[in-house]
Amino acid sequence: MKLPQKYLVKITIPLILAACWSSSLLYADGPKDNLPDQVRRIPALGVEVPEKQRAQLEEGLAKLKSSIDQLKKTKDARIRSLIPDVEIYHRAVRCALEYQEFFHEREIGVGSKLLEQGQERADQLLKGEAPWTKQTGLVVRGYISKIDQTVQPYGLVIPESYTFLGKSQYRCDLWFHGRGERLSEVNFINQAQRSRGQYTPTDTIVLHPYGRYSNAFKFAGEVDVLEALESTKQNYRIDDDRVAVRGFSMGGAACWQFAVHYADRWFAANPGAGFSETPLFLDVFQNEELKPTWYEEKLWQLYDCPGYALNLFQCPTVAYSGEIDKQKQAADVMEEALAKVGIDMVHIIGPETAHRIHPDSKVIIEEKMDSLARVGRQRVPSTIHLVTYTLKYNQMDWVTLDAMGEEWTQGRIDARLPGGNRVEVKTQNATAFTLKMAPGEAPLDMTHPVTVKVDGAELKAPRPLSDRSWQVSFHKADAGWQVGPAEYAKGQLVKKHNLQGPIDDAFMDSFIFVSPSGKSASPTVEKWVQSEMKHAIVHWRQQFRGDARVMQDSQITDKEIAASNLVLWGDPQSNQILKKIIDKLPIQWNQEMIVVGNKQYAADHHAPVLIFPNPLNPEKYVVLNSGFTYREYAYLNNARQVPMLPDWAIIDLRTPAGSQYPGKVVDANFFDEFWRLK
């Protein structure tokens, strides 16, 4: 589709090459990266560090660690809160040295410089000083992630106009970086201290999330964005109504998914290139012949954006593509999806431009983003459209989808305020929902009840409270929609937000790998468990740049059960926690047989993987024998990085684990909305 000529500005000057970290190429190696049996290592092994330089780095690490240990002894809350700003330097260099992730000789020198910078911050903080917290320009900071308690870095561009003692709030743009297979913490921090990136709007804080490496800001990468934004809000005055998401290449893919999944949080979205879904992109870009299982196709809906397109009703969107960029496909797909729901997408196209942002297009984009920033996010829209395939993404402004008829089938709520103390709601594949407006926000008459028309039935709802807050829940019963939250029998499990699966969801919050203290009944199972547990630990660090917490079953206390998802490795004979809960899981597992419904599998060469509410604490998950479910083959192209297994699966261990699956998947499915076998 060609847009009006004003968006297709011809120029004769050479194109400006984008900074590597802000628009890194997404490109994989073409057909060679379509061979599951010949997968190259990502990240690749770096160079060997000469002994002299290794000794210098180790000396610098030891000194900095000593300073960090000293800082951790303080009782000063302010100093303790700033320790992550020091730790990011230590962890970056330690990981690069320990895991051979200096990818070029020059990066070794960068590592030395980062240690000097970390030591300088540590020395300042030991004196009670933290000058970087009052610094404008390029600043790198850190936070401790709830997922695995590791320190994670993020970059900031603080405008010169920022007043540290003032009260005015500032616009904030999130910029998602492009694919970088060598984007170690060392390289990310170094680049964040040297490059302002593609856009630095006036009077705007620009946040550059690390996203935990090169996963298109999915899973732990998604959580990293939200945690980095929250950390930025704690340290700087951010206007919640003027936060935008932007990105290019892999970052453009991230922008699409953050725009559709969290549309009510941003005043605008500005995606460029990248991908917006899995199958068409891999066909067009990677020339890959896909043969997904039925559940893999359903699981694409976790991150595929076209089905969520209507959510952009809440988020003004300015898309960009180069005219001759193969990744223009992403915006074309979304343009078509938006047209189907009645929205005409603004699509800025750089003329005769490949995988770069055209300079004149940048001017047009910035004019539009600045205009949208002046308007800001709408606090209480009179019309809401919420579309989702999972309770993971179940909220839009004042509408929350509490329960679905069936996950992974599109659910939808359309709500509007027509005036006159009335609310109109239409639903699809919804069985419970809540309408909630914060104090001061309800545009309703507090002296009269509210009439809510749900799918044609008129129901009387409570009136707003004196602080102009309003909240009411509805659930579907045999007689139709009724006022009030759904009621369940005592102990009845039900899928709900952040407790809905699939297996990969367990790794978007605090989790602990629980190793077995005993041996599995079957030597085959024992060997597989040990291999898969090691694989999960190694690949969590390589791909999600964290250190998985590992505890033996005998070490788990009520504290861990209350605070974390537990990933239990082994079988009921080897893992004491699993032995304790096995009769409360929806499968049976003894030394002879694994029973799933009316199917049986020999326990000497099969193993289950699954996710389920922990019987010891149903507000957290328990996972059996699995880390995140995509494997080495998916690392080669970010569009492949999607869940590969649903809520449960049975693995035949006679087929060795490979680059796509942990063995032969002989059966797999989702649990129903009450965590029962289908």
UniProtKB/TrEMBL annotation:
This is Peptidase S9 prolyl oligopeptidase catalytic domain-containing protein. Keywords: Signal. Residues 1-28 form the signal peptide. The keyword Signal applies. GO terms for biological process: proteolysis. One of its GO terms (molecular function) is serine-type peptidase activity. Residues 224-362 form the Peptidase S9 prolyl oligopeptidase catalytic domain.
